[in-house]
Amino acid sequence: MLTTLYCGVQAAPIVRVAVEAALPSELPRLVEGLRLLNRADPFLEVTLQDKGEYVLGAAGTVSVHAYMSSD
After folding, report:
1. How many CA atoms lie within 13 A of 3 on its CB side?
2. 2-29 pLDDT, tens per residue?
3. Could you report the per-residue pLDDT of 29-49, keeping only the tens digit for each?
4. Cβ neighbours of 33 (radius 10 Å)
5. Is residue 30 part of a domain?
6. Which of 21, 28, 54, 69 counts the highest number of beta carbons within 10 A?
7. What is the Cα–Cα distance from 62 to 71, expressed in whole angstroms?
8. Would you state the pLDDT for residue 3?
9. Domain that holds residue 10
10. How far does CA 43 lie from the centroid of its chain?
């Protein structure tokens, strides 16, 4: 799967991480946060798998840690 970047270059995510809400009641907040993150960063790929799992695709582990940070 290739993602088209703003600069016209195509690149596939190197790191993929599945994410889930800590509590089922927080799922709408997770989905909204992922939607906003996907809009804000063209280098991030957010996909919903067939089984309902959300997966972040990024250029590297540093990017994933930055996205997942609660600070």
Report:
1. 18
2. 444 445 556 677 888 898 999 999 999 9
3. 999 999 988 888 878 889 999
4. 15
5. yes
6. 54
7. 15
8. 45
9. 6-68
10. 9
Q: List the one residue out of 18, 16, 21 whose CA is nearest residue 31.
A: 21
8-state DSSP, 6: T
Residues 6+ apart with CB under 8 A from 48: 54, 55
Examine residue 1 and state whether it is found in any structural domain, yes or no.
Answer: no
Residue 56 lies in a domain: yes
Q: Above pLDDT 70, what percent of the chain?
A: 77
CB < 8 Å & 24+ apart, contacts of 58-65: 58/13, 58/14, 58/15, 58/16, 58/17, 59/11, 59/13, 59/14, 59/15, 60/14, 60/15, 61/15, 63/15, 64/15, 64/17
Both tokens of residue 62? 């540093």
Q: Tell me how many domains the chain contains.
A: 1
